[in-house]
């Protein structure tokens, strides 16, 4: 099992523990806001399972039917997670509406808040693991899961504060009002996760900073060439795809041109491990006098 798969499996275990704690907090208090927190945790578990499946599919090597690999499977998982977040938010809004119609004071609020707080601490720690390791492993599924958990942690803090305020003031309506605010926050989180994942499915180019690094790396490593133009990039999970045309002097031998390409590929892979690079070599008269100028 790879490091990415181990983390994804850990998310399922943590999600189940947090779900049990939040469900206990709701059972102790009868709070609609705490119920909304528990409902979001059911989504966490479902999406953690989807993320693990997607990561395993994405890790499969290229084959005849998928010559570019299976890396985009993680983006599908992240889109599914976004959809499920939105569904959870709608369920919470429904519960909040029922709470507005029949507001009630809470049972055992202190015990429930302590249990919910413990679940939030656990979620916060795991959220940090998912985002930091997901970025290091370049896994969209792990990062999306971590961002979702971050929104869960933030909303949980708000829930605890709001429920405490409802108990102190005796305003029972604060409980469903808070649940509605949690739902709106979750909706925004779901939209951001979906938007980020759809960009990968649409073959969006790498960021401007990464593109600048790629240009500089090509320029530094392409001694013996004239220019590189028509540079294109896209990303799919942990993979970055780079292709461009490399212009060399018309008298350059095939072996010499190949050596230049090898140097560029090695330099790019040091900068972006796992990058897949395609270079089309062209003679001098094909130069466009634009793109990357070789130093």
UniProtKB/TrEMBL annotation:
Residues 11-202 form the Cation efflux protein transmembrane domain. The chain crosses the membrane at residues 7-29, 41-59, 75-93, 113-132, 153-171. Coiled coil: none annotated. Its main location: membrane. One of its GO terms (biological process) is intracellular zinc ion homeostasis. Pfam families: Cation_efflux (PF01545), ZT_dimer (PF16916). One of its GO terms (cellular component) is plasma membrane. Gene3D superfamilies: Cation efflux protein transmembrane domain (1.20.1510.10), Cation efflux protein, cytoplasmic domain (3.30.70.1350). GO terms for molecular function: cadmium ion transmembrane transporter activity; ferrous iron transmembrane transporter activity; zinc efflux antiporter activity. It is found in: Cell membrane. The keyword Membrane applies. Keywords: Cell membrane, Membrane, Transmembrane, Transmembrane helix, Transport. Residues 207-284 form the Cation efflux protein cytoplasmic domain. InterPro entries: Cation_efflux, Cation_efflux_CTD, Cation_efflux_CTD_sf, Cation_efflux_TM, Cation_efflux_TMD_sf, CDF_Transporter. It is a multi-pass membrane protein. Belongs to the cation diffusion facilitator (CDF) transporter (TC 2.A.4) family. This is Protein p34. It comes from Paracoccus denitrificans (strain Pd 1222). The lineage of its organism: Bacteria, Pseudomonadati, Pseudomonadota, Alphaproteobacteria, Rhodobacterales.
């Amino acid at each position: 099992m790879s490091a990415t798969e181990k983390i994804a499996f850990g998310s399922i275990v943590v999600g189940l523990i947090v779900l049990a704690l939040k469900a206990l907090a709701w059972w102790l208090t009868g709070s609609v806001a705490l119920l909304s927190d528990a409902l979001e945790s059911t989504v966490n578990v479902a999406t953690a399972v989807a993320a693990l499946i997607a990561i395993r599919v994405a890790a499969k090597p290229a084959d005849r039917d998928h010559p570019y690999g299976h890396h985009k499977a993680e983006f599908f998982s992240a889109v599914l997670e976004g959809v499920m977040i939105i569904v959870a938010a709608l369920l919470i809004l429904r519960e909040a509406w029922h709470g507005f119609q029949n507001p009630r004071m809470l049972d055992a609020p202190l015990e429930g808040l302590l249990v919910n707080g413990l679940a939030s601490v656990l979620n916060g720690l795991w959220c940090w693991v998912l985002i930091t390791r997901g970025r290091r492993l370049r896994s969209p599924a792990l990062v999306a899961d971590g961002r979702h958990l971050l929104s869960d942690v933030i909303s949980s803090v708000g829930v605890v504060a709001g429920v405490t305020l409802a108990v102190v003031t005796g305003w029972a309506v604060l409980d469903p009002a808070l649940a509605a605010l949690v739902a709106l926050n979750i909706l925004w989180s779901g939209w951001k996760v979906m938007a980020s994942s759809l960009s990968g499915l649409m073959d969006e180019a790498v960021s401007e900073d990464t593109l600048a690094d790629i240009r500089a790396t090509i320029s530094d490593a392409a001694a013996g060439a004239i220019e590189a133009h028509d540079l294109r990039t896209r990303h799919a999970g942990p993979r970055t795809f780079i292709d461009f045309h490399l212009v060399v002097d018309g008298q350059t031998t095939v072996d010499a041109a190949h050596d230049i390409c090898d140097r560029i590929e090695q330099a790019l892979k040091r900068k972006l491990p796992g990058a897949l690079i395609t270079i089309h070599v062209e003679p001098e008269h094909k130069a466009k006098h634009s793109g990357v100028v070789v130093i």
